[in-house]
UniProtKB/TrEMBL annotation:
Keywords: Flavoprotein, FMN, Monooxygenase, Oxidoreductase. This is LLM class flavin-dependent oxidoreductase. The keyword Oxidoreductase applies. InterPro entries: Diverse_substr_monoxygenases, Luciferase-like_dom, Luciferase-like_sf, NTA_MOA. One of its GO terms (molecular function) is oxidoreductase activity. It comes from the Bacteria. It is an enzyme of class 1 (oxidoreductase). It comes from Pseudonocardia yunnanensis.
Amino acid sequence: MSSAPRQRRMTLVGFMQAGNVTVYSGSWRYPSADLSFLDLGYYQKIARTLEEGKFDLVFFDDRLAMPGVYGDSVAEAVRYGARPIKLDLTAILGGIIGATDRIGIGATYSTTYYDPFHVARTFATLDHLSRGRAAWNVVTSVNDSEAQNFGLEQHLGHDERYDRAQEFIETVVALWESWDDDALVMDRETGIFADPDKVHEINHRGKWFNARGPLTVPRTPQGRPAILQAGQSGRGREFAAQWADLIFTGDPGLAVAQQHYRDQRDRIAAAGRSPDDVKFLPMAYTVIGETEAIAAEKERLFLESYVHPMASLTLLSEVLNYDFSQHDLDDVVTEEMINAASGIRGLADGVRQHLGRADVTVRDLAAHRATLLQGPRFVGTAEQVADQMEEWFLGGACDGFVVAATHLPGAFEDVVRMVVPILQRRGLFRTEYEGVTLRDHLGLARPS
């Protein structure tokens, strides 16, 4: 295949969970998976592997509750390891900062259950301690289980969540910018530490938040940490167009991704920003074998052997905020069911398209969500996987990938040691880091 223009290189992000599984919920059952997920060294080793591969960023998804929508209980999540463990991300990122030098580090923090000052201070601190490598993945959270851990009965509605998120991020950015770049003086002779005329109260008073400011952390090496966002709805895409430096998507096929890419770039331009300043990154699994047959057998095992159907239903209930315990696995998805939960329609339509038939069952939905069917899956030898990634990258579908692991650390090791050198030889990916900060890696200017 032909090489990409040298000025345009893929962005590669490693997608992590701080717990017992990757986004693939059967990962803990893979025979060679490392299960030392309660040990900081586990996360440090994975981050060093990704840094060896010159990845732009490692970022962590998060949820603020065990999956507890199915049967109004966490029992099945605990029994089958369906993401019952979620460690605090600040401590993990701190440990990764100490073990790496260049790779960006990112974490998910909710605009629904945190406070702007807390988030602004956390990520400003991480940006300083990492010398400019921090990123915040902005989410509005997904379900009632999370709400109930924060003293509420129900999760906010979709539009309310985005109204709150809009004011939240405006407040966070104002706090990040409450120190001028040159506010610190630190003159021992005169005793002047900082210029008070260059440190500002923000005096924000809004519907959702009040914040006086200033932030207790000076302006950061990146100006402000990078922003990730994964909104798929119209409102989510508008939010991403206004704020995101990286947009994280779950488009299952090339044609869908190409259409989404065009739509999102149009929205970014309409928001008064350059589309080239935002990286559009589908989540992609890689299944790599020394031969095509080995890769196909590994794929078969991932699809058929490691995800328990009950774990699938538990996770499906969580993400759609709908209790599937009232249905059997082989119940056909009905219009009544679709109307009961807003997210089911989009998922059902995607599964119908993938399977090529009109009738889909609860089992089909669960398998789609919890195995390897929710994003592109690049399968084959290292050369074949690189071909597939190149096709998407040069075909107007993306600016790179959020690489999801089928198991850890092996899936990332395969990409770094087998696929990355091929992408580098083709001129599609960096051979060395050319800057210090995450914005340097992404080719993004420091905000003034």
